[in-house]
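Design a sequence for this backbone.
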């Protein structure tokens, strides 16, 4: 099966938003986070999360807002620094997180 074209995805989300903007935003955020993990995550992260995110047995959210920055991604002060061969330390202060109360399923953007 051919992958869904971006235009088709836009049309689907547009129709979802007509019916319920909250559901459309919720699914859009979930899909964006799943795509980021699948595209940029480690093999271990992909093996752990993609099988849970695809059927939505786990729901992804993202951390973007910070005190003083709001949702302006260019004003974020979050920093990620390698602290070992397989470790990254993230320093941040999140004002809110979309969709998920569970810290284990948040995607941090920096």
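Sequence:
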């Amino acid at each position: 099966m051919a992958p869904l074209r971006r235009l088709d995805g836009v049309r689907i989300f547009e129709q979802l938003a007509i019916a319920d903007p909250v559901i459309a935003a919720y699914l859009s955020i979930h899909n964006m986070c799943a795509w980021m993990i699948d595209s940029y995550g480690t093999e271990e992260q992909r093996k752990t999360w993609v099988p849970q995110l695809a059927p939505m047995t786990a729901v992804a959210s993202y951390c973007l807002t910070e005190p003083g920055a709001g949702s302006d991604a260019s004003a974020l002060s979050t920093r990620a620094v390698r602290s070992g061969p397989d470790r990254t330390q993230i320093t941040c202060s999140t004002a809110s997180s979309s969709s998920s109360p569970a810290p284990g399923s948040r995607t941090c953007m920096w």
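Helices lie at 6-19, 21-40, 43-53.
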